[in-house]
Amino acid sequence: MSFQGPAVQNRSAGSAVRARQHLFNDRTLDAYRDALAAGVDRVGDRIARADRPFSGISPQQLAPEIVDIDLDRPLEDPAAALDELEDVYLRDAVYFHHPRYLAHLNCPVVIPALLGEAVLTAVNSSLDTWDQSAGATLIERRLIDWTAGRIGFGVDADGVFTSGGSQSNLQALLLAREEALTTAAATATATAEERTALLPRLRILASRAGHFSVQKSAKLLGLAPDAVVTVPTGADRRMDTAALARELERCRAENLPVLAVVATAGTTDFGTIDPLPAVADLCEQHGVWLHVDAAYGCGLLVSPTRRHLLDGIERARSVTVDYHKSFFQPVSSSALVVSDSAVLRHATHHADYLNPARAVEQRIPNQVDKSLQTTRRFDALKLWLTLRIMGADAVGSLFDEVVDRAAAAHDLLSTDPRFEVVTRSQLSTVVFRYRPDGAPDGEHLDRANLHAREALAASGEAVVAGTRVDGRHYLKFTLLNPETTLDDIAHVLDLLAGHAAGHLAASAA
Q1: What's the distance, Cα to Cα, between the start and end of the chain in Å?
Q2: pLDDT tens digits, one per residue of 211-230
Q3: What is the pLDDT of residues 54-96, one digit of tens each?
Q4: Beta-sheet pairing, 228-231 with 158-162
Q5: Phi/psi class of residue 54: alpha, beta or left (left: φ > 0; alpha: ψ in -120 to 50)?
Q6: What DSSP string describes 87-126?
Q7: Alpha helices, DSSP H only, in 154-305?
Q8: In terms of Cα–Cα distance, which of 356, 358, 337 is closest to 141?
Q9: Which one of 35, 116, 253, 298 is least enclosed by Cβ atoms within 10 Å?
């Protein structure tokens, strides 16, 4: 039996007292207000001084500063901790609010959502069961109903908030898999052996320009390595519906049940929207589940001018929406919405200690019954306060602005002899390549474009994305900031052209 002397016991008791001073409760409200105010001031100062979206620091430069921090020796003083945070995070963070951040699907965020973030983290509701969330459960359900209405689903629709588009797509395909297994086995009481035998034959049809989470989901769902069949796109980078029809017929002829067709409403690279009405027609003809990945394009649901671009989405059986992409919400804020609430039963498992079956009989609303997650943040509050303070039309107008800016950027690039541009986006991306005066293509231009992107990031003056198109390296603008001007875009193009031209000149010397 171990024995601790009085000195050790006193130190332990003293540590416990100090620790309790950091617990958030009615006795520590002054410390809570002071700490949050100091944090808000620090972020505000950094935003005010940010003259570029990134410092250009490399992982090799920053890593030693973080590795050398002794996490077993607390600073105890919040001000000292914020000073340290300035050096290891705030100084070098990538700031999406800056108008020359043009890389990925990261949006600047609206203040009502930040207010929601502060409230939800302090109260710390968990959205799995009613007895951990109360009104938060009903607010999330109301927002799902609102989103379903915007999609065009009927009264049987339902859904749940998720961590992001990848999780939403995974859950949609899980539900589709279970429905396909039931249908293919011709009975809801098929044996486990019969179901297992069907798994290697199941197929998912998705656009070649679709999101990689479809392939990841297929692997997680135990499907065959070749389960995802990529459907070609046309020159406009939208799914070729004639090719889709051929693949559906081929799968039928080869006795390969199609568990889902995944259409994309806003491809990550090109911002294109698959022809939803025609895809829906084919899915109905073949009795196949249609899932629409609208993680990016969901902002059109509130657009005052472009909602028609999503016509046909109401015929899907499931839809992914990412509010943290085009609703200007902080990460994370996403949802899966289904047209028929009954399919969510495939995600339900009753645990006596959490959501016993009797809770259903007592009509107690438990969100864990429809979610892949158990513990889950009250992310819906951010969208709730955004809608209650700003309104849906205001959010849609902001999204319209970035779509307009992308169209203007496309026109600018189309007339610039230094660049070639791929296809016109229906949303807010522009994919282009440095290729002055139609210079012969080849690896030398690939290297020049890669160098231009890397040199620009290292300078910190702007951040752009890159991708490959038909085997060649291209650059990409993803515009989600209404504050980005055409002058900003023109300036970034000049920088890119300068870096690329300099690389070509150095290579030729």
Answers
A1: 77
A2: 999 999 999 999 999 999 99
A3: 999 999 999 999 999 999 999 989 999 999 999 999 999 999 9
A4: unpaired
A5: beta
A6: HHTGGG---TTSTTEESSS-----HHHHHHHHHHHHH---
A7: 165-184, 192-198, 213-220, 241-253, 276-286
A8: 337
A9: 253
**Tokens, residue 150:** 């915007």
- pLDDT at residue 349, rounded to an integer: 87
pLDDT at 187: 54
User: Residue 421 in contact with residue 237, Cβ under 8 Å?
Assistant: no
Q: For position 454, what pLDDT does the model report?
A: 97
E strands of 43-103, at which residues?
A: 101-102
Nearest to 336 by CA among 360, 301, 306, 372: 372
Are 362 and 350 within 8 A, CB to CB?
A: no
Q: What residue ranges do the domains of the chain occupy? A: 9-95, 134-344, 393-508
Question: Which one of 3.90.1150.10, 3.40.640.10, 2.30.30.100, 2.60.40.10 gives the CATH number of domain 134-344?
Answer: 3.40.640.10
Q: Which CATH class is domain 393-508?
A: alpha beta
Instruction: Please identify every stretch of the chain with a pLDDT value under 50, giving residue numbers as ranges.
Output: 1, 188
- Closest alpha carbon to 331 in 171, 216, 135, 162: 162
Look at residue 97 in the predicted model and tell me its pLDDT. Answer: 96
| DSSP sequence for 245-288 | HHHHHHHHHTT--EEEEEEEBS-TTT--B--HHHHHHHHHHHT-
pLDDT value of residue 98: 97
CA–CA distance, 269 with 430 (Å, rounded to integer): 8
pLDDT in tens, 282-341: 999 999 999 999 999 999 999 999 999 999 999 999 999 999 999 999 999 999 999 999
**Taking the mean position of all CA atoms in its chain, how far away is CA 97?**
17
The pTM for the full model equals 0.93
